[in-house]
Structures are given as structure tokens and as C-alpha cells.
Amino acid sequence: MTTTSASVHVPGNHLMVGLLGQRDEYLRLVEDAFPDARVQVRGNEISIVGADAARAAQVFEELVVLLERGQHLEAGAIGRAIDMVRNDERPSEVFATEVLRGRSRTVRPKSSGQKRYVDAMARNVITFVLGPAGTGKSWLAVAAAAQALQSQQVERIILTRPAVEAGERLGFLPGDLMAKVDPYLRPLYDALHDMLGAEGTQRMLEKGVVEVAPLAFMRGRTLNDSFIILDEA
Q1: What's the CATH number where 154 sits?
Q2: Residue 60: Cβ within 10 Å count
Q3: Is the pLDDT at 4 greater than 60, yes or no?
Q4: pTM, 2 dp
Q5: Predicted local distance difference test score (pLDDT) of residue 166
Q6: What is the count of structural domains for the chain?
Q7: Any idea of the CA torsion for 15, 16, 18, 23, to the nearest 10 degrees?
Q8: Number of H helices, E strands in the chain
Q9: Does 46 score more than 70 pLDDT?
Q10: Which of 62, 136, 153, 208 could form a disulfide with 148 if both were Cys (CB 3.0 to 4.6 A apart)?
Q11: Contact at 8 Å (CB) between 82 and 59?
């Protein structure tokens, strides 16, 4: 096994604090991920020796780039950055993409797969995406829709998904249309609330700027200047 060495200069004490984490939490994450690399920190210099030195150094370099852009690091992001470097991907490119900039948070892709999804939505009129539950498919689509609405690329957002038992059977359920389909469309509501806030979402729903409806009720609709999300189809 070849022993190599690498060093990373961190330009500024404030960046070093963000890079290493509280009580060196992030440093330990990198050390645990690359057991064949020995990391030593002196001042603003990180020295790495071992077979995994180059990979570990690349992780630190990518994280420094993120910090210089003003992005906040957390343990989950460190783990995802490590995985990307192992796959010859650049976290600084993936995490740099902004899907939606809100007052309280900025929505960014958290993996290279999510970045490809976001890029596909930006480039294409129609985008199909498949993936396991919890991988951000609906969440990122709603974020992209909110951004398109805020930038006046579209005039409204339409969220739709199939409702169990189809539209004809919904008549047997109590309440108006929204009460009937609410349980099936709740994941989309949750994403809207996360992006726009509860008050903002309610206001847009009342104005018809955001519309949520089951797929069975979408036949024959005119959908000009709309960002349409068909979920769980």
C-alpha cells in the first residue's frame, strides 16, 4: 500500500471553525470515513498522511469552497460530501445549485441525483422521475414550482395526484372536494407549507394561484402558463 501525503490551507480562522465543527465533530467524520488517512491540524493548515490522503484532502477542499460561499455545514452534508468524493463527484458543484431562495431557508439538492433532477426540470418542458419514497421527488418539484412562480415564469401552480378509489368513488366520502381528497394530497400540502409558509400557501390557494386537485378531476382542463406536478402517477 502506497503512503501519500496532502495538505489543505484554510484561509481564515472563522472558516476553520466551520470546517472542523463543534468539538471537531466534522473532522472526526472525515477521519472515520478514511481510516487509512491520519489527519493533523496546526493553525490553518490541515496535513494528511496515508493511502486515503488525497480523498480526505479533496473532501476538506470542497467543504472550504462551500464555506467561502457562505453555506452552512451540518453533519448530514459532510456525510453526503464524503460519498460524492468517493464517487468522483464534486460537492461544491452539487450544493451550489439553488432551487428556491426563501426568507428563512434556501433549497438546494442534497445529492448528485437530486442535482440531475433539478437540472432536468430547468431544461425540459416535461420531466419524469422515479425513486424510492423519501428521496425528495415531490419536495424538489414543489420548490422548483415555487421558484418559477416567484420569478414570474408561470402564473399558477397545479398539484395533482391520483386519489384512491378514483374520482367517482370520492362522492361517498363526507365533506366538500378538498375535504375528500385532502388525505391523498397531504404530502404536497406539506411541501407547500415548507416552501411558502402556512399563511402564504393558504393565501395562494384562496386566490387560485396554487391549485390542488385529484387526477380524476383534471380531464379537459386548460393549463396555460402553469407549473404542473403530477405526483405518484
Answers
A1: 3.40.50.300
A2: 24
A3: yes
A4: 0.76
A5: 45
A6: 2
A7: -160
A8: 10, 8
A9: yes
A10: 153
A11: yes
The residue from 61, 96, 131 where one domain ends is: 96
> Which residue bears the cell 402558463?
225
Tell me which DSSP letter residue 171 carries: G
DSSP 42-100: ETTEEEEEETTHHHHHHHHHHHHHHHHTTPPP-HHHHHHHHHHHHTT--HHHHTT--SE
**pLDDT value of residue 195:** 82
Residue after which a domain boundary falls, among 34, 66, 96: 96
pLDDT averaged over the chain?
86
Is residue 65 located within the same domain as residue 168? no
Comparing CA positions, the residue from 113, 108, 110 lying closest to residue 79 is 110
Question: In the structure grid, which three cell numbers stand for residue 41, read together?
Answer: 491540524
How far is residue 104's CA from residue 194's CA, in Å, rounded to a whole number? 10
Q: Which amino acid is at 42?
A: R
Q: Answer yes or no: do 124 and 213 share one domain.
A: yes
